[in-house]
User: Fold AEC family transporter from Leucobacter tardus.
Amino acid sequence: MFGIIQGFTVILGVIGVGYLAGRFGVVKGEQRLVLNRVAFSVATPALLFTVLHRSDPSIIVSPVILVTTVSAIVAAGVFVAASRLWFKRDLGATTLGATCAGYVNSNNLGLPVAVYILGDAAYVAPLILVQLILFAPTILAILETTRGNQRGAFLALGRAASNPIILASVAGLAFALIGIPVPELALAPIEMIGGAAIPMVLLSFGISLHGQRALQRGSGRAAVFTATGIKLLLMPLAAWGLSIAFGLSPHETFVATIISALPTAQNVYNYAATYQRGEIMVRDTVLVTTFASLPIIAAIAWFLQS
Assistant:
Protein backbone atom coordinates (compact mmCIF):
# COMPACT_ATOMS: atom_id res chain seq x y z
CA MET A 1 0.00 0.00 0.00
CA PHE A 2 2.91 2.34 0.69
CA GLY A 3 4.07 1.85 -2.89
CA ILE A 4 0.65 2.94 -4.17
CA ILE A 5 0.68 6.08 -2.00
CA GLN A 6 4.21 6.82 -3.11
CA GLY A 7 3.25 6.35 -6.75
CA PHE A 8 0.29 8.73 -6.55
CA THR A 9 2.40 11.25 -4.65
CA VAL A 10 4.98 11.26 -7.43
CA ILE A 11 2.35 11.57 -10.17
CA LEU A 12 0.37 14.33 -8.43
CA GLY A 13 3.56 16.14 -7.47
CA VAL A 14 4.69 16.44 -11.08
CA ILE A 15 1.17 17.43 -12.22
CA GLY A 16 1.18 20.08 -9.46
CA VAL A 17 4.51 21.48 -10.66
CA GLY A 18 3.03 21.69 -14.15
CA TYR A 19 -0.01 23.56 -12.85
CA LEU A 20 2.23 26.06 -11.03
CA ALA A 21 4.27 26.55 -14.19
CA GLY A 22 1.07 27.50 -16.00
CA ARG A 23 -0.27 29.54 -13.09
CA PHE A 24 2.84 31.74 -12.85
CA GLY A 25 3.35 32.11 -16.58
CA VAL A 26 6.48 30.00 -16.92
CA VAL A 27 4.66 28.26 -19.76
CA LYS A 28 1.96 30.31 -21.46
CA GLY A 29 -1.03 29.32 -23.55
CA GLU A 30 -0.37 26.77 -26.22
CA GLN A 31 3.36 26.59 -25.45
CA ARG A 32 2.64 23.44 -23.47
CA LEU A 33 1.84 21.70 -26.75
CA VAL A 34 5.58 21.60 -27.40
CA LEU A 35 5.89 19.20 -24.47
CA ASN A 36 3.04 17.09 -25.85
CA ARG A 37 4.54 16.93 -29.33
CA VAL A 38 8.02 16.02 -28.13
CA ALA A 39 6.62 13.43 -25.74
CA PHE A 40 4.30 11.97 -28.39
CA SER A 41 6.75 11.86 -31.28
CA VAL A 42 10.10 11.31 -29.54
CA ALA A 43 10.16 10.46 -25.83
CA THR A 44 7.20 8.08 -25.52
CA PRO A 45 8.23 6.02 -28.58
CA ALA A 46 11.70 5.74 -27.06
CA LEU A 47 10.25 4.61 -23.73
CA LEU A 48 7.98 2.02 -25.33
CA PHE A 49 10.80 0.67 -27.45
CA THR A 50 13.02 0.18 -24.40
CA VAL A 51 10.17 -1.49 -22.49
CA LEU A 52 9.00 -3.79 -25.27
CA HIS A 53 12.34 -4.88 -26.65
CA ARG A 54 13.10 -6.47 -23.26
CA SER A 55 9.59 -7.84 -22.67
CA ASP A 56 8.11 -11.28 -23.20
CA PRO A 57 6.26 -11.01 -26.56
CA SER A 58 3.56 -13.36 -25.30
CA ILE A 59 2.23 -10.57 -23.05
CA ILE A 60 0.51 -8.93 -26.02
CA VAL A 61 -1.83 -11.94 -26.26
CA SER A 62 -2.01 -12.38 -22.52
CA PRO A 63 -5.32 -12.82 -20.68
CA VAL A 64 -4.80 -9.38 -19.11
CA ILE A 65 -4.88 -7.65 -22.50
CA LEU A 66 -7.88 -9.75 -23.57
CA VAL A 67 -9.82 -8.83 -20.42
CA THR A 68 -9.05 -5.10 -20.63
CA THR A 69 -9.94 -5.02 -24.34
CA VAL A 70 -13.29 -6.77 -23.83
CA SER A 71 -14.04 -4.55 -20.83
CA ALA A 72 -13.44 -1.44 -22.93
CA ILE A 73 -15.84 -2.69 -25.62
CA VAL A 74 -18.48 -3.45 -22.98
CA ALA A 75 -18.08 0.03 -21.45
CA ALA A 76 -18.42 1.72 -24.84
CA GLY A 77 -21.54 -0.30 -25.64
CA VAL A 78 -23.19 0.63 -22.35
CA PHE A 79 -22.58 4.31 -23.02
CA VAL A 80 -24.15 4.07 -26.47
CA ALA A 81 -27.23 2.39 -24.95
CA ALA A 82 -27.45 5.02 -22.18
CA SER A 83 -27.09 7.81 -24.71
CA ARG A 84 -29.94 6.51 -26.84
CA LEU A 85 -32.18 6.27 -23.78
CA TRP A 86 -31.39 9.47 -21.86
CA PHE A 87 -29.44 12.09 -23.83
CA LYS A 88 -29.45 11.53 -27.56
CA ARG A 89 -26.44 12.95 -29.40
CA ASP A 90 -25.30 12.92 -33.00
CA LEU A 91 -23.03 10.15 -34.28
CA GLY A 92 -19.80 12.03 -33.63
CA ALA A 93 -20.63 13.03 -30.05
CA THR A 94 -21.97 9.55 -29.24
CA THR A 95 -18.82 7.95 -30.62
CA LEU A 96 -16.62 10.24 -28.55
CA GLY A 97 -18.71 9.64 -25.42
CA ALA A 98 -18.37 5.89 -25.88
CA THR A 99 -14.64 6.40 -26.38
CA CYS A 100 -14.47 8.37 -23.11
CA ALA A 101 -16.12 5.43 -21.35
CA GLY A 102 -13.69 2.79 -22.59
CA TYR A 103 -10.47 4.30 -23.95
CA VAL A 104 -8.04 4.33 -21.04
CA ASN A 105 -5.18 6.74 -20.52
CA SER A 106 -2.61 4.01 -21.00
CA ASN A 107 0.04 6.51 -22.02
CA ASN A 108 0.02 9.75 -20.01
CA LEU A 109 -1.09 8.22 -16.70
CA GLY A 110 -1.06 4.52 -17.53
CA LEU A 111 2.71 4.38 -17.86
CA PRO A 112 3.34 6.20 -14.54
CA VAL A 113 0.80 3.97 -12.77
CA ALA A 114 2.38 0.90 -14.35
CA VAL A 115 5.88 1.97 -13.33
CA TYR A 116 5.10 3.12 -9.79
CA ILE A 117 2.15 0.90 -8.81
CA LEU A 118 2.19 -2.24 -10.95
CA GLY A 119 5.97 -2.19 -11.01
CA ASP A 120 6.23 -3.03 -14.71
CA ALA A 121 5.34 -0.89 -17.75
CA ALA A 122 5.25 -4.02 -19.91
CA TYR A 123 1.60 -4.58 -18.95
CA VAL A 124 0.51 -1.19 -20.29
CA ALA A 125 2.67 -0.99 -23.42
CA PRO A 126 0.75 -3.71 -25.32
CA LEU A 127 -2.54 -2.05 -24.39
CA ILE A 128 -1.30 1.18 -25.97
CA LEU A 129 -0.60 -0.83 -29.11
CA VAL A 130 -4.07 -2.45 -29.08
CA GLN A 131 -5.79 0.90 -28.61
CA LEU A 132 -3.81 2.57 -31.36
CA ILE A 133 -4.06 -0.28 -33.86
CA LEU A 134 -7.62 -1.47 -33.16
CA PHE A 135 -9.58 1.28 -31.41
CA ALA A 136 -8.13 4.51 -32.81
CA PRO A 137 -8.63 3.70 -36.52
CA THR A 138 -12.22 2.63 -35.82
CA ILE A 139 -12.97 5.84 -33.92
CA LEU A 140 -11.29 8.03 -36.54
CA ALA A 141 -13.08 6.23 -39.35
CA ILE A 142 -16.48 6.97 -37.78
CA LEU A 143 -15.52 10.59 -37.14
CA GLU A 144 -14.35 10.96 -40.74
CA THR A 145 -17.78 9.85 -41.95
CA THR A 146 -19.35 12.71 -39.95
CA ARG A 147 -17.50 15.01 -42.35
CA GLY A 148 -19.13 13.23 -45.26
CA ASN A 149 -15.89 11.42 -46.08
CA GLN A 150 -16.64 7.81 -46.97
CA ARG A 151 -12.93 7.01 -47.26
CA GLY A 152 -12.54 7.54 -43.51
CA ALA A 153 -11.44 3.97 -42.78
CA PHE A 154 -8.54 4.17 -45.22
CA LEU A 155 -7.45 7.56 -43.92
CA ALA A 156 -7.57 6.32 -40.32
CA LEU A 157 -5.52 3.24 -41.14
CA GLY A 158 -2.95 5.42 -42.87
CA ARG A 159 -2.65 7.66 -39.81
CA ALA A 160 -2.26 4.65 -37.54
CA ALA A 161 0.47 3.13 -39.70
CA SER A 162 2.54 6.33 -39.50
CA ASN A 163 2.04 6.89 -35.76
CA PRO A 164 5.50 7.07 -34.10
CA ILE A 165 4.22 5.27 -30.99
CA ILE A 166 2.99 2.36 -33.10
CA LEU A 167 6.20 2.26 -35.14
CA ALA A 168 8.38 2.21 -32.01
CA SER A 169 6.18 -0.41 -30.33
CA VAL A 170 6.26 -2.67 -33.36
CA ALA A 171 10.03 -2.26 -33.58
CA GLY A 172 10.41 -3.12 -29.89
CA LEU A 173 8.25 -6.22 -30.26
CA ALA A 174 10.21 -7.25 -33.36
CA PHE A 175 13.49 -7.10 -31.43
CA ALA A 176 11.92 -9.09 -28.61
CA LEU A 177 10.60 -11.74 -31.00
CA ILE A 178 13.86 -12.06 -32.92
CA GLY A 179 15.91 -12.01 -29.74
CA ILE A 180 18.64 -9.78 -31.13
CA PRO A 181 20.14 -7.50 -28.45
CA VAL A 182 20.31 -3.78 -29.14
CA PRO A 183 23.90 -2.46 -28.97
CA GLU A 184 24.48 -0.47 -25.80
CA LEU A 185 25.88 2.42 -27.82
CA ALA A 186 22.49 2.78 -29.55
CA LEU A 187 20.33 1.84 -26.56
CA ALA A 188 21.80 4.32 -24.07
CA PRO A 189 20.51 7.52 -25.76
CA ILE A 190 17.15 5.86 -26.45
CA GLU A 191 16.79 5.03 -22.76
CA MET A 192 17.80 8.56 -21.77
CA ILE A 193 15.21 10.12 -24.10
CA GLY A 194 12.56 7.62 -22.97
CA GLY A 195 13.16 8.63 -19.37
CA ALA A 196 11.83 12.10 -20.18
CA ALA A 197 8.46 10.84 -21.45
CA ILE A 198 6.56 10.49 -18.18
CA PRO A 199 7.69 13.81 -16.65
CA MET A 200 6.85 15.70 -19.85
CA VAL A 201 3.33 14.34 -20.24
CA LEU A 202 2.52 14.89 -16.56
CA LEU A 203 3.90 18.44 -16.63
CA SER A 204 1.91 19.22 -19.76
CA PHE A 205 -1.28 17.90 -18.22
CA GLY A 206 -0.72 19.98 -15.10
CA ILE A 207 -0.16 23.10 -17.22
CA SER A 208 -3.39 22.41 -19.12
CA LEU A 209 -5.41 22.50 -15.88
CA HIS A 210 -4.72 26.20 -15.32
CA GLY A 211 -7.76 28.29 -16.22
CA GLN A 212 -10.17 25.41 -16.86
CA ARG A 213 -13.72 25.45 -15.49
CA ALA A 214 -15.43 22.10 -15.74
CA LEU A 215 -19.07 20.96 -15.51
CA GLN A 216 -20.77 24.27 -16.21
CA ARG A 217 -24.54 24.28 -16.72
CA GLY A 218 -25.55 23.43 -20.26
CA SER A 219 -22.26 21.71 -21.06
CA GLY A 220 -23.71 18.19 -21.24
CA ARG A 221 -23.12 17.14 -17.66
CA ALA A 222 -25.40 14.09 -17.94
CA ALA A 223 -23.14 12.63 -20.61
CA VAL A 224 -20.03 13.51 -18.58
CA PHE A 225 -21.31 11.84 -15.41
CA THR A 226 -22.49 8.79 -17.35
CA ALA A 227 -19.16 8.36 -19.14
CA THR A 228 -17.29 8.92 -15.87
CA GLY A 229 -19.36 6.36 -13.95
CA ILE A 230 -18.97 3.76 -16.68
CA LYS A 231 -15.24 4.41 -17.00
CA LEU A 232 -14.33 4.35 -13.32
CA LEU A 233 -16.89 1.91 -11.89
CA LEU A 234 -18.42 -0.33 -14.54
CA MET A 235 -15.29 -0.98 -16.62
CA PRO A 236 -13.07 -2.12 -13.71
CA LEU A 237 -15.98 -4.16 -12.33
CA ALA A 238 -16.35 -5.82 -15.73
CA ALA A 239 -12.61 -6.49 -15.84
CA TRP A 240 -12.68 -8.02 -12.37
CA GLY A 241 -15.66 -10.23 -13.26
CA LEU A 242 -14.10 -11.34 -16.55
CA SER A 243 -10.81 -12.08 -14.79
CA ILE A 244 -12.61 -14.35 -12.32
CA ALA A 245 -14.61 -16.00 -15.13
CA PHE A 246 -11.48 -16.64 -17.22
CA GLY A 247 -9.56 -18.01 -14.25
CA LEU A 248 -6.83 -15.38 -14.17
CA SER A 249 -4.33 -15.48 -11.33
CA PRO A 250 -4.75 -13.01 -8.42
CA HIS A 251 -1.91 -10.87 -9.78
CA GLU A 252 -3.33 -10.87 -13.32
CA THR A 253 -6.76 -9.96 -11.91
CA PHE A 254 -5.16 -7.11 -9.96
CA VAL A 255 -3.38 -5.78 -13.05
CA ALA A 256 -6.41 -6.06 -15.35
CA THR A 257 -8.70 -4.33 -12.84
CA ILE A 258 -6.25 -1.52 -12.12
CA ILE A 259 -5.64 -0.89 -15.83
CA SER A 260 -9.40 -0.77 -16.49
CA ALA A 261 -9.81 1.86 -13.75
CA LEU A 262 -7.39 4.26 -15.47
CA PRO A 263 -8.99 7.56 -16.53
CA THR A 264 -10.07 8.56 -20.02
CA ALA A 265 -7.17 9.11 -22.39
CA GLN A 266 -6.29 12.72 -23.13
CA ASN A 267 -5.90 12.06 -26.84
CA VAL A 268 -9.68 11.58 -27.01
CA TYR A 269 -9.86 15.35 -26.58
CA ASN A 270 -7.50 15.73 -29.52
CA TYR A 271 -10.02 13.78 -31.62
CA ALA A 272 -12.90 15.92 -30.36
CA ALA A 273 -11.06 19.18 -31.04
CA THR A 274 -9.93 18.06 -34.48
CA TYR A 275 -13.39 16.98 -35.61
CA GLN A 276 -15.22 19.65 -33.54
CA ARG A 277 -17.60 17.16 -31.95
CA GLY A 278 -18.41 17.02 -28.23
CA GLU A 279 -15.34 19.03 -27.21
CA ILE A 280 -16.64 20.28 -23.84
CA MET A 281 -18.08 16.88 -22.90
CA VAL A 282 -14.79 15.15 -23.66
CA ARG A 283 -12.67 17.79 -21.93
CA ASP A 284 -14.74 17.59 -18.74
CA THR A 285 -14.78 13.78 -18.76
CA VAL A 286 -11.01 13.63 -19.12
CA LEU A 287 -10.59 16.11 -16.26
CA VAL A 288 -13.07 14.45 -13.88
CA THR A 289 -11.90 10.89 -14.52
CA THR A 290 -8.26 11.87 -14.10
CA PHE A 291 -8.75 13.06 -10.53
CA ALA A 292 -11.56 10.70 -9.53
CA SER A 293 -9.59 7.66 -10.71
CA LEU A 294 -6.84 8.12 -8.14
CA PRO A 295 -8.85 7.18 -4.99
CA ILE A 296 -10.68 4.47 -6.96
CA ILE A 297 -7.42 2.87 -8.07
CA ALA A 298 -6.12 3.07 -4.51
CA ALA A 299 -9.31 1.41 -3.21
CA ILE A 300 -9.09 -1.36 -5.82
CA ALA A 301 -5.45 -1.96 -4.99
CA TRP A 302 -6.20 -2.13 -1.25
CA PHE A 303 -9.15 -4.50 -1.81
CA LEU A 304 -7.34 -6.89 -4.18
CA GLN A 305 -4.07 -6.92 -2.27
CA SER A 306 -5.53 -7.16 1.24
Observations:
- The chain has one domain: 2-305.
- The radius of gyration is 19 Å.
- The chain has a mean pLDDT of 82.
